[in-house]
TrEMBL record:
The U-box domain, residue ranges: 25-292
Pfam families: ARM_PUB
Species this chain originates from: Miscanthus lutarioriparius
Protein known as: U-box domain-containing protein
Keywords recorded for this protein, A-Z: Ubl conjugation pathway
Keyword Cell membrane: no
Amino acid sequence: MEVKPHTARVLVGRLHGATAACDGAAAAAAVSEIRLASKEDPEIRAPLADAGAVPLLAAQLHHASPVSVDAAAALLNISISARDQVATAPGVLDALTSALRSGHAAHHAAAVVYSLLCGGESHRAAVCARRPLLSALVALLRASPKPSTRATKDALKALFGVALYPPSRATLVSLGVVQALFALVMTDERNGIVEDATAVVAQVAGCAESLEAFRWVSGVRILLDLVEAGGAATPRARENAAAALLNLVVAGGEAAAAEVVAVGGAEETVRELAEDSAASPRGKAKAEALLRALEGAGPAARRREHRLSDFLDGLVQSDPYISSPASASTHG
């Protein structure tokens, strides 16, 4: 039973010694060894964390060089078995922010952020409180040249995890995430990107601040185009678009409902999804709930001016599809 801790101490000792001696080549070799060990042997991940690997690896993320890729990958592997130790290690979140900005290790760094977000409420709050880190994630979506598909998808997964934490949604909106997400929806044809982007849009829509940002990018019209039969490349993207519209109306109330109804044919488009026998139960449920909400913004709204707000208050309490990570996730 002592073999794993001993091996971990030896590996970490090599990295510590190389770092202390300012020997970049030796440090890179030691990080590579730790990455390989943490990938091939799950049982050594926690001992590596116990031996002090996390802060040493985090320090390597500040280097815009290949060693940062190995360091971020090793942190990702270790986080699977020792998430608390990674999340609470000094300087880790700052180091991840640096890695997201450097480009070399961005995809691994985004994956580490997502892993930490899965670690419970305290870890999620700590990550979401770091505005520079959230800004780096949003910037990754806008990067030019376009990041790899893997980097973009990892960034979207991390942003989805951030957006599941309601207090962070307004922050993301202020950082320009709505514009970045709709740019992907409109222009990115890579496999799975639109599905993942619309999943994040659906969560971000669940704050009152999102309505104005949606106006700037014609977001309601774009989402309705995706809800329309044949408008989205995949059924899940269509579902996510309906979920986004529903969350927008729930969060924005009558003003948001009026924005949706103002688009010609909006209710008919949503009704088609609700009545589509080929649509998934989730998609149909979202469309049905949205239709009920939109009734309060139609021509007869003056006769029932309080009906929409009363309905939405009840919907938030009773509808199991709203703000549900399991139903909203594009990752199963």
